[in-house]
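Lab notebook, bench 4. The sequencing result for the construct came back, and we need a structural model before the next group meeting so we can plan mutations. Quick request posted to the team channel:

Model the 3D structure of this chain.
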Amino acid sequence: MLSVQSPDAVGVLGGFEGGTVVKTRDGYHAFVTEMLRGWNTGSAFIKTRLADWVSPDGVHWHRVGTVFSSTGDQTGTDPRAALWAPMPVYNSSEQRWNLFYLAYRSKPNVPPAWYINYDGELVRALSHSTGHFHRWTIYENYWSATEKTALQPVCTVRQSL
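Done. Here's the predicted structure in token form:
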């Protein structure tokens, strides 16, 4: 399916992880985590992108764009240092796509603890575009499980389709 040798996998050194494939009327969308550092760096799990890939047949894939990018910060202070497991879910009552994903802090490991990805939170991003098969152009992070300010925008990110 997808590999670091895929034509549009520029900058993807550590490969792809997790994600979800959604069937649309014109093919498939795969929302995946792209690892931007190689396995030999010791930090392949930190600098990541959540990306949207499309395919007309489920075999030949083209990268549409980046939905969100992590910072790759390794000080333990950034709650969005690493982003993982994008899962799009259509909410028919809102007529909008929701994108759920996990965000983690990161810092160097201190034995016996592993801190490469820790203190994770679930984040909900909401598409501004309405309609089941409408092109998704803007997402806003609306809440995380640990934030007390539910439904307050955290940031706005544009995705070009």
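The first strand starts at residue 15 and ends at 24.
Will bring this to the meeting.
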